[in-house]
Specification:
single chain; 130 residues; mainly alpha; 6 helices; 77% helix; 0% strand; elongated; Succinate dehydrogenase cytochrome b556 subunit; transmembrane helix
Amino acid sequence: MAELTIKKKRPKHLDVTKIRLPLPGILSILHRVSGAGLFLLLPLLLWLFQCSVDSPESFGTFKAVVSFPLVKLVLLGLIWAFCHHFCAGIRFLFLDMHVGVDLPSARLTSKIAFVVSLALTVLLGAKLLW
């Protein structure tokens, strides 16, 4: 029996373009990416917060910086990262309590996490940035 498992054909390399990851797997990877993005851009957020509350002159600097379209796009990405990380984190807390671990409910909660995070991103982005 051990000889059969050793002689089994295994791929020599993984073709990443042909791997089909299920929706919960994509959610998990994006949860990690959004957490890393939030961590790496935390100095920018802190600087923007300091500019917004320090003095009236620095608030003018804040408004000038945030008025650029590229900065608005980055802030919209950060809003999405926060909303996605929050929604996926709640989902993972339920999974840690063994709620929704079967395949149909795992797929459903993944879809719900994506929809809620995107809806919150649209609402918060429209309210805060435009």
